[in-house]
């Protein structure tokens, strides 16, 4: 085990295995949740279950071996919702073309992660804009969760209104939401998966959903979605903003997660930390592969913090997490029997977690204040992460120009503002 330098990191095999098991339990929810979200785009659910698990195994083990950090990876929340509800449902793209966007963003991510451009891009976009983007994505996926569970429904008079709380399916979603909040507040390590399990059990007991005939089967084939991406259809100027949004959002998500986990475990020291650099490289490569496998961008999972709390300090714990994800491959009938209204409340809770980034934003800065508003509301109201960020970029630049301090416009934000003007008024 000298490969993982356990003694140097003041840990041992038992501790790392325990940490890996803890992270596995904390992030198991991603399997049914991701498959449920992406299936809305018309992709086969069974294949998505397998692809999600395979990418989790691949990305987590890759990172453990490459960076030797206790960071597990899987298909990220936020972009998967944008994939189905923004690109496919909203823009009318085929899921094959949307996978092409994921693949190209992964290629760019790899190129950027190996050059000084990565550091420049991350440092020239204001930290408060990054926080606003995180909060906006949180609002976006929470809105999707409320809408898909029928807690909020459309209205001819007011666009949206409250759903029918007498509907058993809506009541099931409300129970699921209450359980998810309760277990999260109680800091249960498997809070989200536990709420899914109990809500599903309630659905079976009450007859809202049928109990499956079996819980175990051989893994479904990935063939219907693997290597089905359509790259040629997205090699257009009009698709550049969408590709960039996937790239930037994935980078923000990864950096934010690594900052939180790294600080707790004292993993990354300095901006030129080699473990940090290697973890970002592993994430970038896995994102490219995810487009080939038929799922959206992978990212570092904040649930890795649960393993860190158990003492995980090396890549061995990430590898243990990845290996444990082999088990769910044989539970397809169980995952297929989980009702959607046990899944969508999870989006609301995750959205709230992301939304809490707003508390760190400096509202004394007028450019930040106004751009945050348009980013935050632009994403859910236009059903697009791209539109929200581009709207915020225009407002950010406009406020600085009006105040006469246009020289204070960060280069990256200025570029985004120009791209936004082209997208909204030219393309």
Would you kindly provide a written description of the structure presented here, covering whatever features stand out?
- The chain has 427 residues and is mostly helical.
- The protein folds into 2 domains: 2-361, no CATH class; 362-427, no CATH class.
- 65% of the residues lie in helices and 3% in strands.
- Strands 1-4 form a two-stranded antiparallel ribbon. A two-stranded antiparallel sheet has the order 2-3.
Concise structural overview:
With 427 residues, this protein is mainly α.
Would you identify the regions where 5 or more consecutive residues have pLDDT less than 50?
Answer: none
Total number of distinct structural domains: 2
H-E order: HHHEHHHHEEHHHHEHHHHHHH
Rg computed from alpha carbons, rounded to a whole number of angstroms = 21 Å
* Tally of helical segments: 18
Mean pLDDT: 91
The main β sheet shows up as: 2 strands, antiparallel
Backbone structural class:
mainly alpha
As a percent range, the share of helical residues equals 55-70%
Total number of β-strand segments?
A: 4
For the largest sheet, list the strands in their spatial order.
1-4
Could you give the distance between the termini? 55 Å
Element layout with pairings:
Layout (H helix, E strand, L loop, with lengths): L12 H15 L2 H10 L5 H23 L5 E3 L3 H10 L6 H19 L2 H9 L2 H22 L3 E4 L3 E4 L5 H18 L5 H16 L33 H26 L8 H20 L4 E3 L3 H6 L5 H10 L7 H6 L2 H16 L10 H17 L2 H18 L8 H15 L2
Antiparallel strand pairs: 1-4, 2-3
């Amino acid at each position: 085990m000298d490969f993982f330098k356990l003694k140097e990191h003041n840990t041992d095999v038992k501790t790392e295995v325990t940490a890996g098991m803890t992270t596995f339990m904390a992030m198991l929810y991603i399997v049914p949740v991701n498959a449920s979200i992406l299936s809305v785009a018309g992709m086969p659910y069974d294949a998505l279950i397998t692809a999600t698990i395979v990418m989790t195994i691949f990305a987590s083990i890759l990172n453990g071996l490459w960076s030797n950090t206790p960071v597990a990876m899987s298909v990220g929340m936020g972009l998967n919702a944008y994939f189905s509800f923004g690109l496919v449902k909203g823009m009318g793209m085929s899921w094959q073309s949307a996978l092409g966007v994921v693949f190209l963003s992964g290629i760019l991510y790899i190129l950027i992660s190996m050059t000084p451009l990565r550091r420049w891009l991350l440092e020239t976009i204001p930290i408060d804009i990054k926080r606003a983007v995180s909060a906006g994505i949180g609002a976006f996926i929470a809105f999707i969760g409320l809408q898909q569970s029928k807690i909020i429904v459309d209205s001819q008079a007011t666009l949206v209104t409250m759903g029918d709380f007498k509907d058993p399916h809506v009541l099931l979603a409300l129970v699921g939401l209450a359980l998810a909040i309760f277990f999260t507040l109680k800091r249960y390590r498997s809070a989200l998966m536990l709420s899914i399990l109990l809500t599903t059990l309630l659905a079976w007991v009450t007859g809202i959903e049928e109990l499956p005939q079996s819980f175990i089967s051989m893994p479904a084939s990935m063939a219907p979605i693997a290597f089905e991406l359509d790259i040629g259809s997205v090699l257009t100027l009009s698709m550049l903003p969408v590709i960039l949004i996937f790239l930037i959002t994935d980078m923000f998500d990864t950096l934010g997660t690594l900052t939180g986990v790294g600080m707790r475990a004292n993993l990354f020291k300095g901006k030129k930390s080699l473990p940090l650099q290697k973890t970002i490289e592993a994430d970038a490569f896995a994102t490219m592969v995810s487009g080939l496998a038929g799922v959206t961008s992978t990212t570092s999972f904040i649930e890795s913090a649960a393993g860190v709390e158990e003492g995980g300090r090396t890549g061995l714990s990430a590898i243990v997490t990845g290996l444990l994800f082999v088990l769910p491959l044989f539970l397809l009938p169980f995952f297929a029997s989980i009702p959607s209204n046990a899944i969508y409340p999870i989006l609301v809770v995750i959205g709230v977690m992301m939304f809490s980034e707003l508390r760190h934003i400096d509202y004394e800065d007028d450019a930040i204040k106004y751009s945050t508003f348009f980013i935050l509301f632009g994403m859910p109201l236009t059903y697009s992460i791209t539109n929200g960020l581009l709207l915020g970029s225009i407002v950010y630049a406009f406020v600085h120009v009006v105040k006469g301090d246009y020289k204070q416009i960060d280069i990256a934000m200025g570029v985004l503002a120009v791209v936004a003007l082209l997208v909204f008024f030219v393309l």
